[in-house]
Amino acid sequence: MATHTNYELSDEVMIKYPKKYKVYLLNDDYTSMDFVIDILISIFHKSYEEAEKIMLDIHKKERGLCGVYTYEVAETKVMQVTRKAKDSGFPLKATMEEE
Question: Which of 19, 34, 37, 93 is 20 to 30 A from 9 via CA?
């Protein structure tokens, strides 16, 4: 009985995961701390305690990490922050960076 190698099965399979993007909120001198906490809870689904910690990071370090997402989700979160801030009269900005 002849044995043969099935090269199709023996080749290594490379799985590519989608790139992830970090979403940050940036500090400014006008947006209220309460509004930032509201954004973190409503858009990023943080607990009040998590939101407060991130808000203090934003205040002290000029930006705070809100989460890490796929490109489409990160882009949507940035747009949601921009829209809600504009509608509320605040200049709050969100950015995304490749992880």
Answer: 19
Contact 43, 84 (CB under 8 A): yes
* Domain CATH for 87: 3.30.1390.10
Q: Residue holding tokens 């890490």? A: 68
Evaluate whether residue 1 is within a structural domain. Answer: no
Query: Is the Cβ–Cβ distance between 19 and 69 less than 8 Å?
Result: no
Q: Which domain holds residue 75?
A: 17-98
For the full predicted model, state whether its pTM sits above 0.85: no
Q: Tell me the C-alpha distance between 65 and 61, whole Å.
A: 10
Q: What three-state secondary structure class fits 43?
A: coil
